[in-house]
């Protein structure tokens, strides 16, 4: 297959152009499909969340309305009188019951209003209840509802003359407005069926559903009838604990995955939970995928047709020229060929005809030029490896820049010359701290010229240690690491700080940057490489020597190995980093040590 392509420029160009067309089309189609599916899903979730918020507003209105009516009844003069007097008054009883009836029938969601006096007077109510499910709940949650001014009960069933009624009840103590002693209890019962209508009439997805849970995480509306009054965690184990306010979850229900949206009612701690089968927007995604695939196929067919026509048109003259030159004898004169076009190919043939007559005369000259070129290349290579030649050349450039009053170039060339001179340093391995700092500053200056306004570097070195001897070329690789892997990958301007201080008869150096930092995985990888360097030097146990990690940070590892070789195990690099905050690399060496540690 490779030979088949190699023998034809047309085939190679066809493959390259088709790949150049096909790959972007496929990439664009893939990206478009993913964006479309993401938008479809986001819109479905946003619409669902808006629906939940609308239901929440309606339920909040109902709750607020009931609480306001309860406050009105508690302070109503006739009710206060009826609950305060031990002797029942038939007229007051009838008047109060009439008021309660008016309130109850004016609101469809009110199932019953009950006022229970503590003075033994008859109970006031709007619906005849033969068996109330509230009393057991009051005994169960006695400590809760007595410790607050209002308490909403879980879902329970009242047996009435009209049949069983599921209700949620607001229970409030009624206190005397003068003495503040408790004189009765007010219970506002909401009809669960009416609350259910708010959920079913909200326009939710037909294949999904919405359910309402109370502060005890029990289902009080929505879903299947068998779920009512059960814990959410018993029906949906994955929804045992929802967030405080609202959110989106993906959970399985049966064999189908569902998207779950929830929104809280802070007033009561109730939550609206909506279920949307993911197949709803997956069907839409399938339609988008089909349209995208058809579009890409049509575009590919058009592109392939145009590419083949274009290549045939371009390569046809070249094919004719190739056939004519195929059997040409190089020792004979090169013949001329007819020019049939004025485009680039025609100009190429025309130029070829003009050059053919000069090839013989230029043959000897080309050979001589090639020999001279090789000799010049050898001399240039020899000059490049001669430090004195390099220094002299840099010095000449430095003076030319000064003569041309280009101070910036002169300073950069001077810094480069000092940088190279220190790096060679006649083969010596040690230098003073002052020289090491100057070398690092020269490097930083050159980088600052290359990348203006990308970083700032500051040196904080204790003056007492400037003349102390240390191993050379330790700080510059660390600064380079900070710039390349930390600062240059950051959009904003970065900072590098180099610290040097005396501590416990040692010199401690720190190179700290404000770059992108490293995640935990990369930091563990760096630490593993430092440990592997220790193993290679035979400084750890036999068990640890079995670990082998690939080296990805050669600059850091080389500095680490040199420190271990010259100063011992306690002088290796310490690397600390926080993703998004920066990296801190430090090492300590004995004060004034210029010899190998044994």
Automatic annotation (TrEMBL):
Keyword annotations from UniProtKB, A to Z: ATP-binding, Cell membrane, Kinase, Membrane, Nucleotide-binding, Phosphoprotein, Transferase, Transmembrane, Transmembrane helix, Two-component regulatory system
GO molecular function ontology, one term from the record? kinase activity
- How is this protein positioned relative to the membrane? Multi-pass membrane protein
Q: Which chain regions cross the lipid bilayer?
A: 287-311
The subcellular location is: Cell membrane
**Which InterPro entries would you find in this protein's record?**
Bact_2-comp_sensor_kinase, dCache_1, HAMP_dom, HATPase_C_sf, HATPase_dom, Sig_transdc_His_kin_internal
Q: Which PROSITE patterns match?
A: HAMP (PS50885)
Q: Name the predominant localization.
A: membrane
Domain named HAMP: which ranges? 312-364
Do you know which Gene3D superfamilies this protein is assigned to?
6.10.340.10, Histidine kinase-like ATPase, C-terminal domain (3.30.565.10)
Record-linked PANTHER family = SENSOR HISTIDINE KINASE YPDA (PTHR34220), SENSOR PROTEIN KINASE HPTS (PTHR34220:SF11)
What is the protein's name according to its record?
A: Sensor histidine kinase
Per the UniProt record, the source organism is Paenibacillus chondroitinus
The top of its lineage is: Bacteria, Bacillati, Bacillota, Bacilli, Bacillales
